[in-house]
Each structure stands twice: as C-alpha cells, then as structure tokens.
Amino acid sequence: MYDMAAISLNSLLTGYFWLNGTNYCTNPTLMFVAGSVALGLWCGACMNCFVLVINRLLDVWNKNIMQALFKDGRTYVVLLVPLTYSLYFCFFTTPLLFNSDQTAWFFFTFAPEHDPEMYYNYPHTANNLLIVVVTCLLYVQYSRVLLRHSKVGSGLSWAQKSVRRRIFKI
C-alpha cells in the first residue's frame, strides 16, 4: 500500500508540477504538504521492506521468534513501526520540494540568499543508507540460511561450495 501510494503521489504530482512549472515559490502550501506526505510514504515503504526481510528471515531461521512477532494479530502491531516511522518523517523532518526547472524533488527551495544547509534532511539520508545496507545484509543472511537448508546445498562438492562462498562474500 505504501509503495502504490508513494508511486501514485510522486508520479502524478511530479507530472502536474512539471507541466505547470510549479515550484515552492508559486504554490508553497501544496508543495509543502505534498513533499511531506511523499517523504513519509517513501520512508514508510522503506521500513515495510525492512519488516518484510525480517519476516522472511525469521520464517526460515527461527520459527519461535517469527511466531512471537507475527502470529495472529501481532503482525498489525509490528506494522505500527512503519506507520510511526512514516509519520515521523511526514511531520518532523524537512519536506521534499519540487523544482520544475530541475524536474526533481529537493530539500532546498533554490531561492536566492537561502542557505542549502538549513534545508538538509539528515534523517532521510540516514534512512536511505541504513535501509539499503541493513536490508542487503539481511538478504545475504536469508540466502545463506536458504542455501544451508536446501537439499541442493548439501549435495555440492567441496569446490562448488568454495565457489559459492566466494560469490556470497562479494
């Protein structure tokens, strides 16, 4: 749901803003609200991906912890984490602002005599870096667990296992 809402909002509004030449100076309220919601949806979608990889990993690695976190209605409680995360970015961080000259979203208005450092969004940068790194590491672990539990992995020769280890290290 987050992905679909984020894609719809970002693509439709980006096209509308670009066709009309809209930027922060011409429509500040709409730009501020749209940028806040778009950023919140993006970060919420990132956290949903993180929850998904944890769910997948625990499903094959440790069923007890998976059941403790995701059994029955507990999944809805776990999904409050991405919702809270999304709301934090929506209401408490600097919003994205569209610039029709650059045809992109930025954290800066491009107004003369404004300091770009004032608009920088450190939590967004941390989100993008941490989600990418941690999600990739968790998927590597997920692949290792799947390989260990698969019947194909146990029938490999020493040389084949060695090659696979090297590939996973890369």
Automatic annotation (TrEMBL):
<feature type="transmembrane region" description="Helical">
    <location>
        <begin position="30"/>
        <end position="54"/>
    </location>
</feature>
<keyword id="KW-1133">Transmembrane helix</keyword>
<dbReference type="Pfam" id="PF10321">
    <property type="entry name" value="7TM_GPCR_Srt"/>
</dbReference>
<feature type="transmembrane region" description="Helical">
    <location>
        <begin position="75"/>
        <end position="98"/>
    </location>
</feature>
<keyword id="KW-0812">Transmembrane</keyword>
<dbReference type="InterPro" id="IPR019425">
    <property type="entry name" value="7TM_GPCR_serpentine_rcpt_Srt"/>
</dbReference>
<protein>
    <recommendedName>
        <fullName>7TM GPCR serpentine receptor class x (Srx) domain-containing protein</fullName>
    </recommendedName>
</protein>
<feature type="transmembrane region" description="Helical">
    <location>
        <begin position="118"/>
        <end position="140"/>
    </location>
</feature>
<keyword id="KW-0472">Membrane</keyword>
